What does this fold into?
Amino acid sequence: MDINKKEDSFCALCGVDERNRICRTVHGKGPVFCPTINQRERIYHFMKPYDDEDTREFARNATIQEAECFINRGVKPFVRFPVKPRIQETYEFTKKMGYQKIGLAFCAGLFREATLIHRLFESKGFEMVSVVCKVGGIPKEYLGILEDQKIRIGAEETMCNPIAQAEILNAARVDFALVLGLCVGHDSLFIKHVQSPVTVLAVKDRVLGHNPLGALYTLNSYYSRLSEE
It folds into this structure.
């Protein structure tokens, strides 16, 4: 990897202090690979989609929602004081957008959580449509899965069907789609095929209770093996 290539972006490797980054303050600085410096003309070109009224309104409400997740915003010096969990952010943003019919695509392993979400959003006045990953009951053999490639070897298993989940929500003409715990790859297929805007409530992590960042926070201790494999 050549981080001196100006045509590529390596923002995750930026060593400039956050308060002095050019992407955060007009008089800031950036490393040699900084896209804010090197790709400024292209970035201004990328702003054109915001001229679309619906896109601008979506981005505007998302930005307002971001700010409303903090309190004491006028106090100096400012100290970040977040007060809203993601589930609250989601239904508040959905209301801001005027959405009424919400689709929930969820993993069968989070059935209880899906029920809670379905009922919570209904209590907020939304019409809910929910569809489980195993919808259709199609055997995994349809994908060419061999017996030793199953979770439970020798048992009957149905495939996750994220494309069907997406198409069922498309047919229901949902205004907004929520993803809950779909597997890696299955979530990608769902997002690719669903026609409405979509957000992720939670991602699948079977080991860490759906908190994948836990492994990153312990890369120097319990999960050091990930860096060594």
Summary: The chain has a mean pLDDT of 95. Residues 2 and 75 are 43 Å apart (CA to CA). The radius of gyration is 21 Å.
